[in-house]
Structure formats: C-alpha cells, structure tokens
Amino acid sequence: MSVLYPIAPSADAALKAPLGRAAREREAGELVHGHVRFARDLTGASFETREAASAAWAGRIDVDGGPAIAPEDRYCDLVEIATAAPAGQAEPVYEAGHRWPKPRRLLKTTWRLSVSYWQVVEASTAQSVPQARQARRTEGAEGLDAAALRAMAQQPLAPVKPQQPLDIGLFEIRPPDAPHLIMPDE
C-alpha cells in the first residue's frame, strides 16, 4: 500500500485539516480541482532530544515500543536540524600548561517534525518557474537570484518527451512469424 499524502496549502494545515489525501499528483489535483506540487516542510516546535520529539509527535511517527503507524499514514518524520550556537571570542586561560580552553561546540542540533504533503498552488504560479535545464541556456542565467535558484531546485523534473516503451533485452528476439512475442535467444 502506498502513502496517502495530505492535500493542504501548508504543513500545519496538512496536520490539522487536510483537504483530502492522495498518493499521486494527478489524484491530488483532481480532488482539489486545481494544481498541486509535492512539498516537504518543517512544522512544530524544536526539541533538544529525539526522545522528546518522539514523545510529542507519538501519534504521527513510528516510535519504538509505541503503536505502529499504518503504511498509508507515514508522511511525517523527525529531522535533525543543525543551528549555530552563539559564538564569542575565546579568552586565554593559561591552565595546566594550556593556553586556550577546550573549543566550544559551534553547532547545536534540534529535532523537528517534517511533513510531506501535496501543496495547493495557484494556476498562475504552477508553471511560472522554468526547468533548470532550460533556464541555464537563457541569456540572463548568470543573474538569477538565490530565491529563483531555490525554486528551480525544489520543483520536480519534467520530462523532455514522453517515455518510450522499453526495448527488449540483449539476448531476446522477436520471431518473424509472431512479432508480438519476445523469446530468449541462447
């Protein structure tokens, strides 16, 4: 069974009141009669430890020893986020033959809930961002700002042309009298 992702305008709405649930983009678009895109966003409070985050989101994620989540409800996950701790100038201490103190950790980790969902988008913004393979060939490709590059990186790749049927293998042939059959050739 595949995961049924919620359809909502934001991650908070996906947890609280989704507009529906669908496994595929086409199904999600049909349910809301509009355009959707797959999104994965962080929501909720930050927690210092994984255990604290697991206890807070026990009904949404799999917890060891807790109730099992149904396969179609596995759209939430805990993610470890690195945040910069406040850093200052180190002062020399001259203790025990050492001039400098032990270095402090510059990164602090926290845990947050990541929600995967179908995000409802307006029709005008659904196709406004070009594919990266097309945008890099344009005249102003060097002048793209960070937001435009981030939007290109987050959208799924669109096919250049429809996928062709798979070819037969190296050691398979189609007999002349029955071209609809594929036979092994050994």
Radius of gyration: 25 Å
Would you list the SSEs in sequence order as H and E? EHEHEHEEHHHEE
Largest sheet: 5 strands, mixed
Structural class, please?
A: alpha+beta
What is the number of E strands? 7
Which whole number gives the mean pLDDT? 82
Cα shape = extended
Uncertain spans: none
Plain-language structure description:
With 186 residues, this protein is α+β, with helices and mostly antiparallel strands. It has a domain at 1-84 and 94-138. Helices cover 20% and strands 26% of the residues. The model has no long low-confidence stretch (mean pLDDT 82).
Present the secondary structure layout:
Elements: E1 5-8, H1 11-16, E2 20-22, H2 25-32, E3 35-47, H3 50-56, E4 76-84, E5 107-121, H4 123-126, H5 132-135, H6 146-154, E6 172-173, E7 183-184
Parallel strand pairs: 1-5
Antiparallel strand pairs: 1-2, 3-5, 4-5, 6-7
Annotation keywords:
single chain; 186 residues; 5-stranded mixed sheet; two-stranded antiparallel ribbon; alpha+beta; 6 helices
Short structural summary:
By secondary structure, the protein is of the alpha+beta class.
